[in-house]
Amino acid sequence: MNNDYLDPINSIHVPELADTTFAMDLLLRAKEGVRNVAVALTESASPDVRALLRDQLMQGIAMHQEITDLMINKKWFHPYELSEQYKLDQLSANNTVMIGKMNLFPVETNRKGLFAQTPDEHSDKQ
Amino acid sequence: MDNQKLAAHESLDLHEVINFKTLCVGKSKLMQGLVFDDDLRNLMKKDVEQSIQALGQLQEVYKRAPFEAPVPENRPTPTVNLKGVHMH
């Protein structure tokens, strides 16, 4: 993939690049979620709050497991063969930086005027 | 025990967990429409459903926070300032 995002030759592998990125985002949020809930649990005193957080912690761990398994099966995550993981890390960094440098939003994107606005008291002073 | 006001620290940590879970619901829902892979989409769908349920439970408990207040229909102060509208 290179800068010319209009040339079809450069759109090969893009679906998988997108999916690996979305999966990684889901994985990182799952990890973050488990950690956040664990921290909250250890600051909670009320029994029912602790019970709720404990349940959600277990659920969060299970979801993290599912995401990890899916990514391993799809070869999007290599916890054992770290040189494979190294390649993926560098590759997605390069591709994502390339996207980051693209001029994808050349037109003014301020769309505020397109949404309904409640006519409030200072609207007549415009 | 269930109607007693929550302690300070746990209430603030609930604030953190709730905001995080809210963002997770929104983001997973958004990405569900973007992913190509069916298995990944199904897992995101499951994540959304679980997170919505979890968020509901957290919101329920959060009502017992000492700083609880009535929730308005919309955001109290409109975020869209009409000055942002360019009249050409």
How far is it from the N-terminal to the C-terminal residue of chain B, by CA? 61 Å
Largest two-chain interface = A-B, 42 and 40 residues
Please bin the fraction of helical residues of chain B.
55-70%
| Overall structural domain count of chain A | 1
Structural class determined from secondary elements of chain B: mainly alpha
List the total number of helices of chain B. 2
* Annotation, overall tally of beta strands of chain B: 0
Task: Indicate the low-confidence ranges of chain B by residue numbers.
Answer: none
Q: What distance separates the N and C termini of chain A? A: 48 Å
Element order of chain B: H for helix, E for strand: HH
Please render the helix and strand layout as text:
The complex is a heterodimer of chains A (126) and B (88).
Chain A: H1 14-41, H2 47-73, H3 82-101
Chain B: H1 8-32, H2 38-62
Helix pairs in contact in B: 1-2
Region (Disordered) (chain B): 69-88
Protein name (chain B): Spore gernimation protein GerQ
InterPro entries (chain B): Spore_coat_CotF-like
Write a concise keyword list for the protein shown above.
heterodimer; A: mainly alpha; 3 helices; 0% strand; flat; B: 88 residues; mainly alpha; 2 helices; elongated; Spore gernimation protein GerQ (chain B)
Brief summary of the model shown:
The complex is a heterodimer of chains A (126) and B (88). Chain A has 126 residues and is an all-alpha fold.
Describe the structure.
The complex is a heterodimer of chains A (126) and B (88). Chain A is mostly helical and 126 residues long. Chain A has one domain. Chain A is built from 3 helices and no strands. Chain A has helices at 14-41, 47-73, 82-101. The mean pLDDT of chain A is 89. Chain B has 88 residues and is mainly alpha-helical. Chain B has a domain at 8-62. Chain B is built from 2 helices and no strands. In chain B, helix 1 runs antiparallel to helix 2 (38-62). Chain B starts with 7 loop residues before the first helix and ends in a 26-residue tail after the last helix. The model of chain B has no long low-confidence stretch (mean pLDDT 89). The A-B interface holds A 15-16, 18-19, 22-23, 25-26, 29-30, 32-33, 36-37, 39-40, 43-49, 52-53, 56, 59, 63, 66-67, 70, 74, 110, 112-113, 115, 117-118, 120, 122-123, 126 and B 1-2, 4, 6-7, 9-10, 13-14, 16-17, 20-21, 24, 27-28, 31, 34-37, 39-40, 43-44, 46-47, 50, 54, 57-58, 61, 78, 80, 82-87.
